[in-house]
DNA sequence: GTGAAAGCGCTAACAG
DNA sequence: CTGTTAGCGCTTTCAC
């Protein structure tokens, strides 16, 4: 059997229902003035013919595709998988769909933007990738709002929502200090990404405030991945005359996990006995028994909701929000990779999660 | 600033370039007959206006949207994240994009199908979800090819590509037997999913062939997730008068990992000393130091390529492939969760991966 | 409340 | 090679 060439259109339905084509259109447009009786006739005919309105065609006139583009840079990090999933679910609930654009981690998404313009998407969410200000204005000029998820582009007027990354970095610093650490190693991600920069900055700032010497804060690059952090740690500790830090801050959980495995399985260190460790994100993987990672939880649902709000998908006539930067506070989740100091006063905004762990 | 209402169309470009509108269309259509000189004039004008052809509009006439729908049931399993990523990359290379539809794991995707029909996608890939035969024919009738990824629907004429799941189950059985195991536990996933069924079936068949008694093969349900397997194992072993099996087969890696953590961290068992274990998929997470999971590798790149081939995206006039079932053999990857029997003859199709592990 | 008719932005014959 | 002219399937005035 070869493929059907002529698809069933609203005209076919109209003919079967004995009404005009515009009646069919109205039957499928909520809130349009149509008699309930005609509506039923149309719906019945439509069902008989398996008719589904062609939203591609309708978007030509309405200028709405109900498609939101999501630019993703790093699906190797489970955090962004979670982000994708949350966006997809929320949008589906609203009758919209996600069009995926994957770019190399840390790469410019300019090309992706060019492609998504062709699809006339209603909005774009950008995460884990860079964006030129030129592309931002091209989108804005065409009336396509773009919101940055967990990053900002300095000098750009794109709006964004993000975790308070610097604040989160400070929370980790405080936890380490409370547990008695005085020398540190940071494993950073994409050096061009503001997320990594901010977390590191907040972390360092807080340490310096407490009198830690700058020379006691080392830094290595873990390329935002498990493998990157794993090998970066091995490289760093391979240098024998380097003194071992007392605490390691993985800028995100997946790197903290990579570092942790390198420390335990290759360097034979015990955590938190020999060395304490923390991450950032609170991905489900970090909660698992082998890791029990102390971390900062990103309020992902709230962040997604706010990002969607910023898009004004339901009121396209509203002006595009520009230059908004909406930080949302994270929450320290205390698990097993930082020893609890005796008589420790849990600060506000801290959750203590003691997992059942019989080992 | 309020949004731009009038977008730049091919007419604007035509006017600026001093040519007809159809010339603009030709300039952007590869292989159409147009003088190189006019082409350049048009491209130049287009660049000045930041013009990008509206592919929504063009799809109205060409009947091609260059959008492929991907129905995903379970992003909690990293295997499917990898699948998504691979599809997205391949399709982007071809100038196409992926439209995501997430459904509850194991749920019917009928509603998703109804939605994707509206978008006139060029094809649909369905994975980790169920599909009624009725929906299959609705798609086929409209000329939309649908290929099942790693599953098949009995009685449906949808084509699919999958790993040889039964064969993979047999490979695991053989490895266990070679290592001397005689009593077994399977942790299965979605009971309605053919993937889980086939792996279990192949596994059991092979064991029975070797004279294992059916009563020595237990089975519990792990709902295809880490957490599901983790708690299923705790529940099963909580019953003290149950004898401990010598080998556990997690129908997929993520469940094997959950089981492994429950066994080690909650039940205090050593793997492979006290108990051997294997998974299926070969997700990167299973290769990590804490797991070193012996498993069957799914040839994901090959599977994605074949699935895309079946869609005939480049030759839409070809008839839709029906009822094709394309199994591709997996490969046993021997790591640390099954002890290597002395003087073991590595069968063909086996890869031995000894990870550097200093512990 | 309903039908007729004019587009939305583009492609695809069709003449020239 | 290029311009003209119909549509693609739908929404949206505009009369009735």
**Unreliable residue stretches of chain A:** 355-359
Task: Kindly estimate the percentage of residues of chain A that lie in beta strands according to DSSP.
Answer: 15-25%
Tell me the major beta sheet of chain A.
Answer: 6 strands, parallel
Write the CATH fold name of the largest domain in chain A.
Rossmann fold
Radius of gyration of chain A: 26 Å
Give the helix proportion of chain A (percent range): 25-40%
The mean pLDDT of chain A is 92
Count of alpha/pi helices of chain A: 12
Keywords (chains A, B): DNA-binding, Repressor, Transcription, Transcription regulation
Organism (chains A, B): Rhizobium alvei
Domain HTH lacI-type (chains A, B): 8-62
InterPro entries (chains A, B): HTH_LacI (IPR000843), LacI/GalR-like_sensor (IPR046335), Lambda_DNA-bd_dom_sf (IPR010982), Peripla_BP_I (IPR028082)
Secondary structure layout plus pairing:
2 copies of one chain form a homodimer.
Chain A: H1 10-17, H2 21-27, H3 36-48, H4 55-62, E1 67-72, H5 78-93, E2 97-102, H6 110-118, E3 123-127, H7 133-141, E4 146-149, E5 159-163, H8 165-178, E6 184-188, H9 194-209, E7 217-221, H10 226-238, E8 247-250, H11 253-266, E9 276-278, E10 295-297, H12 300-311, E11 325-328, E12 331-334, E13 350-352
Parallel strand pairs in A: 1-2, 1-3, 3-4, 4-5, 5-11, 6-7, 6-8, 8-9, 12-13
Antiparallel strand pairs in A: 10-12
The structure holds a DNA duplex (16 and 16 nucleotides).
């Amino acid at each position: 059997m070869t493929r059907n060439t002529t698809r069933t259109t609203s005209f076919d339905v109209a003919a079967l229902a004995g009404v005009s084509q515009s009646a069919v259109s109205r039957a499928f447009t909520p809130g349009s003035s149509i008699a309930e009786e005609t509506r039923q006739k149309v719906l019945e005919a439509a069902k008989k013919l398996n008719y589904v309105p062609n939203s591609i065609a309708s978007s030509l006139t309405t200028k709405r595709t109900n498609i939101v583009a999501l630019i993703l840079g790093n699906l190797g990090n489970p955090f962004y998988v979670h982000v994708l999933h949350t966006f997809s679910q929320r949008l589906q609930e609203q009758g919209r769909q996600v069009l995926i654009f994957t770019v190399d981690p840390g790469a410019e998404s300019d090309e992706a933007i060019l492609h998504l313009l062709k699809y006339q998407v209603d909005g774009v969410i950008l995460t884990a990738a860079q964006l030129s200000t030129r592309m931002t204005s091209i989108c804005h000029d065409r009336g396509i709002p773009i919101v940055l998820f967990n990053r900002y582009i300095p000098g750009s007027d794109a709006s964004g929502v993000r975790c308070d990354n610097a604040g989160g970095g400070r929370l980790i610093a405080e936890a380490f200090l409370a547990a008695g650490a005085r020398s540190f190693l940071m494993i950073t991600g994409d050096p061009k990404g503001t997320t990594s920069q901010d977390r590191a900055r907040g972390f360092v700032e807080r340490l310096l405030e407490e009198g830690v010497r700058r020379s006691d804060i080392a830094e290595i690059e873990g390329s935002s991945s498990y493998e990157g952090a794993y090998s970066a740690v091995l490289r760093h500790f391979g240098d024998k005359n380097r003194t071992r830090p007392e605490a390691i801050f993985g800028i995100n959980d997946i790197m903290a996990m990579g570092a942790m495995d390198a420390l335990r399985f290759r360097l034979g260190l015990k955590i938190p006995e020999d060395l304490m460790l923390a991450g950032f994100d609170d991905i489900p993987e970090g909660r698992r028994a082998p890791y029990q990672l102390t971390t900062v939880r990103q309020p992902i649902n709230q962040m997604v909701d706010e990002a969607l709000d910023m898009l004004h998908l339901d009121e396209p006539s509203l002006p595009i929000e520009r230059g908004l930067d909406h930080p949302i506070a994270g929450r320290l989740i205390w698990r097993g990779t930082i020893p609890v100091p005796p008589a420790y006063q849990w600060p506000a905004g801290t959750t203590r999660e003691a997992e059942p762990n019989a080992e």
